[in-house]
Amino acid sequence: MSSDLLNGRCWVFGDNVNTDEIIPARHLVTTDAEELGRHCMDGIRPGFSAEVRPGDMVVAGENFGCGSSREHAPLALKGAGVSCVLAKSFARIFFRNAVNIGLPIVESPEAASAVKEGDRITVDLAAGAVTTPDGRTFKVAPFPDFLRRIMDAGGLMHIVRERVKGGAAAEESNR
């Protein structure tokens, strides 16, 4: 799968980064990922969205994505070009919302602690590994095939739409 191997520059954040810091509530008037991305992390690091580049990664401490249960938060990260979030731990609802919109997230307290701002790391979703610039490799839970398919499709709704279209096409051909 093409998105199994991710390599990017890291932006490091602390513990308990909440969804209002990821995307402030005043910007929740849209679900357009690019528009949300223009305001990503405004609540905690103004200017982040102007500096982040496609493929960059967010690295954080404990409980990343806590707060309200909005899909806007992972959507804003994805819209800003963030390719992956590595954290010591995630709020459960953020974890699920990230899967739903196709944003890879990886949990590893050891790897997240080892990464410094600006480091370029490699995340291998299939093998379950995070490699830091100094060559250290941290084992993480590999993404199962079904989860990697969701990521490759761009999110769960894309898979559902394709299945519905496929079912409609199959019905049509049976007539």
List how many beta strands DSSP finds: 7
Indicate the structural class.
alpha/beta
User: What's the gyration radius in Å?
Assistant: 17 Å
pLDDT < 50 stretches = 170-175
Classified by CATH, the class is: Alpha Beta
Q: Report mean pLDDT, rounded to a whole number.
A: 91
Approximately what portion of the residues adopt beta-strand conformation? 15-25%
Helix proportion: 25-40%
Q: Write the element-wise H/E pattern from the N-terminal end onward.
A: EHHHEHEHEHEEEHH
The helix tally amounts to 8
Explained architecture:
- There is one protein chain.
- The chain has a single domain (about 5-175), classed as Aconitase, domain 4, CATH 3.20.19.
- Helix content is about 40%, strand content about 15%.
- It is built from eight helices and seven strands; from the N terminus they run βαααβαβαβαβββαα.
- The chain has helices at about 20, 35, 50, 70-80, 90-100, 110-115, 145-155, 155-175; strands at about 5-10, 55-60, 85, 105, 120-125, 130, 135-140.
- It has a seven-stranded mixed sheet.
- A hairpin with a 4-residue loop joins strand 5 and strand 6 (about 130).
- Helix 4 (about 70-80) packs across helix 5 (about 90-100).
Tag the structure with descriptive keywords:
seven-stranded mixed sheet; 8 helices; globular; Aconitase, domain 4; single chain; 175 residues; alpha/beta
Brief characterization of the structure:
The protein has 175 residues and is α/β, with parallel strands linked by helices.
